[in-house]
Design brief:
With 205 residues, the chain is an alpha+beta fold. It has two domains: 3-68; 70-200, Beta Polymerase, domain 2, CATH 3.30.460. The chain contains eight helices and five strands.
Length: 205
């Protein structure tokens, strides 16, 4: 049997997804593409066309954490969501939304808390962090919007309760349309403070 048919089967994709998930969790790699390539190299599966999709990797990460993290993962997730809620409280005037692994339940010990905040003047977020005496570093993030357009957004990275928080700043009207997720190609899921509170209280996973 040739390499193409061997690597194209569902079992091979599943094994590769599981290995990529292990790399993501254990090495703290956030880029799914990098994790997939590392996993493919480790398993001797070098054909790009056979690599699992990002959605398969995310599902494998979730399963890995459930199998090997158990209670410790649930404790970590709750702690990160509590920190996220507190950070959102600090930035409440900017309508913060939680996105990413901490929201989806796939966060690991190395995961940052990702927030979307909304202001037509990004410097106001910096001023708010200054008011709370929170040191920060600015960054820029490129995200895909509708019609395959990629836009660049300002952001601020800071520590809160020893956890890294990354707040990406969107214009106020950005509340109406979330950017496209690199995982599934759909608009990113966002959660406001009340939704995060429900997660913390165990109303949803």
């Amino acid at each position: 049997m040739g390499r193409k048919s061997e690597f194209g089967n569902d079992r091979a994709r599943q094994v590769l997804a599981q290995e990529a998930a292990r790399i993501i969790v254990e090495q703290g790699i956030e880029d799914f593409r990098v994790a997939k390539i590392k996993a493919a190299e480790r398993l001797g599966m070098s054909e790009r066309g056979s690599l699992p999709g990002n959605g398969e990797i995310e599902a494998a990460v979730s399963e890995h954490l459930k199998l090997f993290g158990r209670e410790s993962h649930l404790d970590l997730l709750k702690a990160l969501r509590l920190t996220a809620f507190a950070a959102m409280d600090i930035l409440a005037q900017f309508s913060p939304r939680l996105v990413g692994p901490v929201l989806h339940g796939t966060a690991s010990i190395s995961s940052a808390i990702n927030l979307h905040v909304f202001s037509d003047t990004p410097e106001l977020i910096a001023l708010r962090l200054d008011e709370r005496k929170l040191g920060y570093k600015p960054f820029e993030r490129r995200l895909k919007s509708r019609r395959n357009r990629v836009d660049t957004y300002a952001g601020f990275r800071f520590l809160h309760d020893d956890s890294p928080v990354e707040a990406t700043v969107f214009p106020v009207d950005g509340l109406r349309q979330a950017p496209i997720s690199p995982v599934n190609g759909k608009p990113m899921k966002r959660a406001d403070q009340s939704a995060v509170a429900r997660l913390i209280n165990g109303n949803r996973d």
